[in-house]
């Protein structure tokens, strides 16, 4: 059964590749609506424990209801996966990291993630955090906003949009998705292929939650929480995320970082991961037809050695 609030992406591929084993402990580092944990629990009833983490307390509350029947095997933790070393004190036999946000978060107008009419500008995954999209749009300098749109949204009109935001906000605070949409549409007049606001909204979300930094930190720390043979299954949804995962896997698999000109290796680099997916796994045609938002998903898998 799918949750009413989120369609779990590549759940069969994820579970198959986690190589679940008897008495194993697993980490679902992006619990969301609990789709992957639900599938793990249904697939094997002889695992020891699933640690379920999310930075959004409301998502945890909903997932808890869905996962009530597996309660005795699940530990719920609210926190940012970038702090994984402080949040758990045991090693695990597999990790699922399904990045981004859930449909529940996207469609909830109060959370302000989407450019749909009526939404306020917020975009915080953790409601404990202070920085919101509203603050970025209304207080950051033109250069800073421009940099965010360029680096996190790959928006080619980054400077023009940032300048227009700064011009408009001197007249009146920019408080809603509609107001921001209007500004973007003024600049991206002929952009018809994807909604011309998508790139700006994605960029703001990444900046508000410092998402790329969190992924990098989690991956760096993963070495210390994975038991030998544990699989790290990562699902990304855009090229900025995928690039980080690909680079990390490559670095972890390498045995030497010495420049080619050096005759003998003296870098003491150790291989920590074996790459299982030379090319990322993509959702099936059937899955994309059933759930079009899965179309950009890429799954990469590494195994701790
Ligand atoms: C795509 S959803 C996961 C959906 C889930 N796999 C399912 O099938 O229901 C991603 C989840 O990760 C959470 N998240 C994003 N960044 C996070 C971070 N840095 N730390 C902890 N949770 C995070 C979001 O709040 C969201 O609930």
Strands of the widest sheet, in order across it, are 3-2-1-4-5-7-6
What is the H/E order? HEHEHEHEHHHHHHHEHEHE
Cα gyration radius (Å): 21 Å
Helix content: 40-55%
> Which CATH architecture of the largest domain is right?
3-Layer(aba) Sandwich
Structural class: alpha/beta
Q: State the major sheet.
A: 7 strands, mixed
β-strand percent reads 5-15%
CATH class of the largest domain: Alpha Beta
CATH topology grouping of the largest domain: Rossmann fold
> What is the typical, i.e. mean, pLDDT?
95
Q: What do you see in this structure?
A:
This protein has 2 domains: 187 residues, Vaccinia Virus protein VP39 (Rossmann fold); 98 residues, Orthogonal Bundle (DNA polymerase, domain 1), CATH 1.10.150.170. The longest helix has 15 residues. It contains 13 helices and 7 strands. By secondary structure, it is an alpha/beta fold. Strands 3-2-1-4-5-7-6 form a 7-stranded mixed sheet, sandwiched between helices. The protein is globular. S-adenosylmethionine (SAM) binds next to helix 2 and strand 2. S-adenosylmethionine binds next to helix 2 and strand 2.
